[in-house]
Design brief:
mainly beta; 5-stranded mixed sheet; 5-stranded antiparallel sheet; 31 strands; ER-Golgi transport; protein transport
Length: 419
């Protein structure tokens, strides 16, 4: 049974609804959000929040400090940024921001790139430590997905682990792959998963060779190497589909996918050989609530490995820790649940983490804490208890080898005794 905790949590008043967040490194968190293109009175922002915490203290479960320091206010009339990708090596960010509604028909430069620069500000007092400041600057705005309607927007953005590829998905069922830093499209035309269905999530495999895309009805795994052909004398590059997983049964009902993530970390202690999905049970007259589950597959044979119920309410977000040993799921009952990745065993449940359901969720680079954001205009950092997962996790494969060696030695011993 998962243990409940108030834990060591820090809550930052973000002043805007928060829709996405990501870490540049152990000290730099970025989040994005705002009130959209209407006249809500809430502007749209990209914000940097430094995480000030010694790693030794964090490992012991002590509290951390989270504050806003570095802010770029977006142009009036533009939509709120709904997704964010932080480059794994360069000081660069990517967001999805719709242009003003009046300009959408002429083309939508919704794919935005930014750079940031960190500088040190001397301390105001001699006994105080110097503070880091971040300047965020817009660099490019370009079209990627065929978004011409103000009701649709860029919903996802993610970099491959080595930072050479960027994937984006839209609320009208399209996905595009870009080379970074050129931003050149890999595919001649965006790949259409299902017209009219939202792309809820996109994520790269640990080696960057595969991309999983999630809609409510299906998971589609694509190769990042395009399929090329010649059409009317021109070379055309198209997405190459590797696997399609349709709706799965969770409990006794069909489920709807909400998020999908490849595992990370070494195979023996991590989960890079796994694919995980957050699945919500379909509405039913017999069921008063829609439960949510985490489901796991092998990432090569696509064999279903198992599932685990995380809440009696629908799930909203899913994250895999950088070391691949933990999963975290946010649910509409305002909770975050932590599971062991290889076994799907429930480890921890944090209740009432926000006033509204979590919209975004990420582990810190050390995998020792979780940061979540919500439309309630807060960002919350939850330090995980030390020893949540044993330092040595033995895989099924290793156990099988140990058992086989033991059986062989036992057989040799028996033969020796009979002789």
């Amino acid at each position: 049974m998962a243990r409940s905790t108030d834990g060591q949590a820090t809550v930052l008043a973000a002043d805007v609804p928060v829709y996405a967040l990501g870490f540049a490194d152990a000290k730099h968190l970025f989040y994005v959000g705002g009130g959209g293109s209407g006249r809500s009175g809430v502007s749209n922002h990209i914000v940097r929040a430094p995480l000030t915490q010694k790693s030794a203290e964090l490992q012991l479960g002590h509290g951390a400090t989270l504050r806003a320091a570095g802010d770029l206010k977006l142009a009036p009339g533009e939509d709120a940024p709904m997704c964010l990708a932080v480059h794994p090596r360069d000081a660069a960010l990517v967001c999805g921001v719709n242009e003003e509604p009046a300009r959408l028909a002429q083309g939508n430069n919704h794919l935005r790139t930014y750079t940031y620069e960190v500088s040190t500000r001397p301390a105001a007092r001699a006994e105080a430590a110097a503070e880091l400041e971040v300047a965020i600057r817009a660099t490019r705005a370009l079209p990627s997905l065929r978004i011409r309607d103000a009701e649709h927007y860029q919903k996802t953005a993610c970099f491959s682990p080595d930072g050479s590829l960027l994937a984006v998905g839209s609320s009208n069922g399209e996905v595009q792959l870009h080379r970074y830093p050129s931003m050149e499209p890999v595919w001649t035309h965006p790949y259409v998963l299902a017209r009219g269905e939202e792309v809820y999530d996109t994520d790269f495999s640990h080696d960057g060779t595969q991309l999983v895309c999630a809609t409510a009805a299906q998971l589609v795994v694509l190769s990042t190497a395009p399929r090329t052909s010649e059409e009317q004398g021109s070379l055309v590059a198209a997405a190459r589909e590797l696997q399609r997983i349709d709706r799965v049964f969770v409990g006794s009902q069909h489920g709807a996918f909400r998020a999908a993530r490849f595992g990370r970390g070494k195979t023996d202690v991590g989960s890079r050989d796994r694919l995980f999905a957050l699945v919500n049970a379909a509405p039913s007259r017999a069921a008063k609530t829609r439960a949510s589950y985490v489901v796991a597959w092998e990432a090569d044979s696509w064999r279903l490995l198992g599932s685990r119920k995380v809440s009696s309410r629908p799930g909203t977000v899913l994250s895999v820790s950088p070391n691949g040993r933990l999963l975290a799921a946010g649910t509409s009952d305002l909770c975050i649940s932590v599971l062991q990745a290889r076994t799907l065993r429930s480890l921890l449940r944090a209740d009432k983490v926000h006033d509204f359901p979590p919209t975004c969720l990420s582990f810190t680079p050390s995998s020792r804490a979780i940061v979540s954001g919500s439309a309630d205009s807060t960002v919350r950092l939850q330090v995980l208890p030390s020893g949540l997962v044993p330092k040595l996790s033995i895989s099924d494969e290793i156990l099988f080898v140990v058992f086989l060696v033991f059986a062989v030695l036992l057989g040799v011993l028996v033969l020796h005794v009979w002789d």
